[in-house]
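Thread title: Can someone regenerate the structure for this chain?

I was given the following input by a collaborator and told the matching structure tokens would be attached. They weren't. Posting the sequence so someone can regenerate them.
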Amino acid sequence: VQLVESGGGLVQPGGSLRLSCAASGFTLRWYDLSWYRQAHGKERELVARIFSASGSTYYVDSVQGRFTISRDNRKNTAYLQMNSLNSEDSAVYYCNAGGGWGQGTQVIVSP
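Best answer:
Regenerated them for you:
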């Protein structure tokens, strides 16, 4: 099981980023896929989840309406579209599925 995140970077408040989570060694669509984030000095928190069976989604309240989780089964890749970013969204973002974790991708929201 291998997961590789990408797409993080520096963005101004109000901006957007799309994170990717590429899976290898297993079929991503068979598993629930979650995005977590960990800000400096804080605990890792669940941000969003897409459920394998139904395709339904869950978002933590703080990102509801701004973030969208999705997956492309042909590419075995999941995404997190993040809009209207603010400083509170600055963190290292991780994807989690099939018992595995990626290495994380850092998002910095700053003027």
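The chain is about 0% helix and 50% strand.
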